[in-house]
């Protein structure tokens, strides 16, 4: 019992991610329960000759699924992957008009459940929800408090759902109204949440900008803004590297990863030149995820000469330091908070891959 409880509390205690060791344990005053005796200790990864290598978990999931287009994956506080998918709805050339208005409103929201929680052990579905809410799912993030952040490109909105709640506590953007004003979004793709509660939104297919909000949802910064020299073209995924004060962007159509200053610790340095990773084999980058001070990324179909695979990136040196995996059409990537597993989703085939990390 105590060993199992240690594992549960370790998972929460090490929410900072792979840069965290297991807690030091000491007997509690009642003599029965063990509790951590000190703060989590960051792991110094600077000595590593090579980064952790993702290794595919064969025969996972152990059960067959029939999801729609799987657009996003995140990991909940219990360590289980949660996916966001489109059910019976498919994004086609007819889904939006030239002004980015959704053309299938009359069909109503997707009738099937669009959010599925899978068991980390075998991939079985343990919970489903989200029927009758979304029109074209895209991004999903789960923050350290278990809040679920979702983007819908048809609604042009971002939603925050608190644990166990069926109605959003924060909504950004206007329903079915694409726009570029401070209060509008246009096909938002992804969300990243800082430990301070600040919200970063990739906005998205039309506006090609990042928006930074305070924890209450008030806009406090637009990236880029003058005199910042940073041209984005479809920011498609986000990853926060808080230790480096960077927000890294899957700048899809520019075929690169860029990491401007996040401004979490101080506004000093905001607008300075972003770290940029752009190499001939990178292709169109669909998503990024943080692992310590590294970024893991997946590209998508670009040209027959560029393999579709994963990349390990060091934003400090602005280089690709490893390649891994083989995919067809990946769309999302995420890590278990304690760094024990990584998940990648694909659209066509609509599936989820699980990886472990080996040194």
Low-confidence parts: 1-48
CATH architecture: 6 Propeller
Main β sheet profile: 4 strands, antiparallel
> How would you describe the shape?
globular
How large, in whole angstroms, is the Cα Rg? 20 Å
Percent range of helical residues: under 10%
Largest sheet, spatial ordering of strands: 3-26-25-24
| Strand-residue proportion | 35-45%
Task: Please tally the helical runs, counting DSSP H or I stretches of 4 or more residues.
Answer: 1
Report the structural category: mainly beta
DSSP strand tally: 26
**The CATH homologous superfamily:** TolB, C-terminal domain
Helix-strand string: HEEEEEEEEEEEEEEEEEEEEEEEEEE
Distance between the termini: 30 Å
Binding site for Ca(2+): 73, 140
EC number: 4.3.2.5
Family: Belongs to the peptidyl-alpha-hydroxyglycine alpha-amidating lyase family.
Cofactor: Zn(2+)
Describe what this molecule looks like in 3D.
By secondary structure, the protein is mainly β. It contains one helix and 26 strands. It has one helix spanning about 1-15; strands at about 25, 35, 55, 70-75, 80-85, 115-120, 125-130, 135-140, 150, 155-160, 170, 190-195, 200-205, 210-215, 220-225, 235-240, 245-250, 255-260, 275, 285-290, 295-300, 310-315, 320-325, 330-335, 340-345, 350-359. The strands form seven sheets. Strands 3-26-25-24 form a four-stranded antiparallel beta sheet, with no helix packed on it. Strands 4-5-6-7 form a four-stranded antiparallel beta sheet, with no helix packed on it. Strand 13 and strand 14 (about 210-215) form a beta hairpin. The chain is globular and about 45 Å long. The two termini are about 30 Å apart.
């Amino acid at each position: 019992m105590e060993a199992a409880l240690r594992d549960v509390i370790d998972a929460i205690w090490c929410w900072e991610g792979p840069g965290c060791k297991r807690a030091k344990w000491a007997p509690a005053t009642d003599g029965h329960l063990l509790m951590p005796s000190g703060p989590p200790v960051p792991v110094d990864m600077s000595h590593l000759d090579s980064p952790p290598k993702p290794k595919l978990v064969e025969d996972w999931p152990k059960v067959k699924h029939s999801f729609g287009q799987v657009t996003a994956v995140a990991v909940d506080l219990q360590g289980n992957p949660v996916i966001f998918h489109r059910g019976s709805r498919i994004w086609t050339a007819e889904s939006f008009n030239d002004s980015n208005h959704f053309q299938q409103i009359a069909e109503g929201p997707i009738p099937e459940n669009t959010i599925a929680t899978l068991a980390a052990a075998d991939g079985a579905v343990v919970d489903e929800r989200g029927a009758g809410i979304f029109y074209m799912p895209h991004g999903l993030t789960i923050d350290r408090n278990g809040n679920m952040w979702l983007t819908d490109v048809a609604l042009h909105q971002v939603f925050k759902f608190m644990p166990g709640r069926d109605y959003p506590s924060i909504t950004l953007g206007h329903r079915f109204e694409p726009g570029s004003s401070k209060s509008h979004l246009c096909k938002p793709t992804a969300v990243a949440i800082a430990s301070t509660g600040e919200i970063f939104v990739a906005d998205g297919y039309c506006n090609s900008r990042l928006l930074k909000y305070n924890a209450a949802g008030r806009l406090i910064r637009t990236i880029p803004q003058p005199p910042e020299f940073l041209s984005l073209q479809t920011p498609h995924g986000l990853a926060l590297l808080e230790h480096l004060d960077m927000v890294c962007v899957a700048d899809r159509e520019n075929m690169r990863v860029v990491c401007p200053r996040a401004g979490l610790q101080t506004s000093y340095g905001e607008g300075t030149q972003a770290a940029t990773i752009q190499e001939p084999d990178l292709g169109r980058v669909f998503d990024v995820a943080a692992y310590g001070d590294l970024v893991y990324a997946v590209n998508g179909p670009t040209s027959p000469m560029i393999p579709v695979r994963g990349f390990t990136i060091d934003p400090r040196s602005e280089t690709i330091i490893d390649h891994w995996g083989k995919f067809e059409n990946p769309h999302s990537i995420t890590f278990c908070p304690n760094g024990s597993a990584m998940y990648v989703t694909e659209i066509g085939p609509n599936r989820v891959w699980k990886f472990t990390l080996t040194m």
